[in-house]
Amino acid sequence: MKHERLNGRQLDRQAILLLAVQGLLGIANALSGTFLPIYLWKASQSLALIGWFNLSQFAVSGLTFWLAGKWVKEHNKMNSLRLGVALSGVFYFVVLLLGKSAVTYAVPLGMFNGLSLGLFWVAFNVVYFEITEPGNRDRFNGWAGLLGSGAGIIAPWVSGLLITASKGERGYSIIFTISAIIFAIAAVLSFWLKRRESSGHYEWFHGIRQLRQPGNPWRQAVPALMAQGVREGVFMFLVGLLVYMATSNEQKLGNFSLITSLVALVSFWIIGKLLTPPRRNRAMMVGAFAITLVIVPLFMPLRYETLLWFGIGTALFIPLYIIPMTSTVFDLIGSNEQSAKQREEFIVLREAALTVGRILGISAYLVVLPFVDQAPQTVAWLMLAVGAFPIISWWLMRRFLGTGERQAM
């Protein structure tokens, strides 16, 4: 069997296939997910509706993680992954059928998408943990980020081109259709992923017990993950929406994604190649402060050029933050044999923390919306406030950074 060697560690074909499935999902989501908030906003002219769509999506995704954790631990985790991929395709097919009336069902649609995302990612994260170890986790995450950035380079640019050339509605129908097809291909490809052995019984409240134990590292990791989620909950949709509102042009948004994703691709590749566990602390510190500082230009009048510089700065430094954060949390899960046996429960705990953070971020967004008309800089202040939370993540995680397996670069 052929292997790809990563810094002395090997990823077998199953690991590469898992990355391929994730890459296809990245392409499908980049094609349509980038423009879905724009589609809903154009049909409703309501920023609040976009917030409620995302809030319902995050809430159901987190709940699905908790419920599906039992299926993943005790039964066939690959079926959860495949069902999640398939339902993602169904989601875009339903949006396609509903057309502009999708805004009427924004919350149910958000819940449905949350279900599909929860089923996929709970299984994906368990399999990811099983096929990696501290020595190659930074590299794996670097490749995952590189694939995501690669998808973000071409897919949104193509979507913007199609939407602009097709005068809007027909273009959206085309990209939603293509995304549904790509999800179907990913679902078929996932059948080449081998069924992985299941063992043990799922403990529903394992995470709560961890948080009750004095000195338990998860008492710091959980709030750090919540801080990560606060930023994600707002930035995942608001940046693209701001670009469109500043330009009223889908092609401009596609160009924005192309440029920023190209920068992120190069950055993920370099950092994923060079980063080792002993370097995580400094890397995450620099990344957390840098992605906060690049928000400051948004206090200037909102223009495409300003947003582009913000996007480039974020793309350049986000790998320094996200790769150490993700790798270190999964290293905690595998810190000892007993912990590794309860990987499903810990992955659910990780997602629960992210979900709570995302809901807090979205809630802050919904609270400040009524003040946007009176004070246009409210959005910039919101982005700076939630965008600074990665610094909290680093501060809480700093004692664990660099505790993974040390290795020569």
From TrEMBL:
Domain of life: Bacteria
Annotated localization: Cell membrane
Topological type in the membrane: Multi-pass membrane protein
Annotated GO MF terms: transmembrane transporter activity
InterPro entries: MFS, MFS_trans_sf, Sugar_transport-like
Pfam families: MFS_1
Any GO CC annotation of this UniProt entry: plasma membrane
Chief location bin: membrane
Entry-linked Gene3D superfamilies: MFS general substrate transporter like domains (1.20.1250.20)
Record's protein name: MFS transporter
Species this protein is from: Paenibacillus baekrokdamisoli
